[in-house]
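ok, trying the design again with the full structure, not the truncated one.
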């Protein structure tokens, strides 16, 4: 994920996830097309995960697809990074 972000001249600040989704905090300039960044992150991570974990085939979203086409993106321009990092870190903790 960091390599893809670096290729887009963006910064992956925080990363965490659960069984069915991931949370990324990415700092990026307005010139970056968010949809292209997300598609690249999904494509690269899918290829690498399929290579490293061939048994993931039973968890594919659809035929030969690890990720769905959907994503959510929100702007958090005024929020302190410490609060955002804490939120992402706590996403895979129970209750």
């Amino acid at each position: 994920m960091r390599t893809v972000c670096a290729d887009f001249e963006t910064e992956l600040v925080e990363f965490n996830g659960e069984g069915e989704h991931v949370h990324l905090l990415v700092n990026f300039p307005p010139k970056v097309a968010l949809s292209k960044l997300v598609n690249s992150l999904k494509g690269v991570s899918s290829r690498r995960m399929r290579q490293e974990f061939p048994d993931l085939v039973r968890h594919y979203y659809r035929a030969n697809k690890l990720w769905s086409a959907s994503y959510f993106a929100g702007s958090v321009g005024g929020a302190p990074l410490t609060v955002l990092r804490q939120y992402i870190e706590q996403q895979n903790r129970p209750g």
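Keeping the full-length input from now on. Strands lie at 11-17, 22-27.
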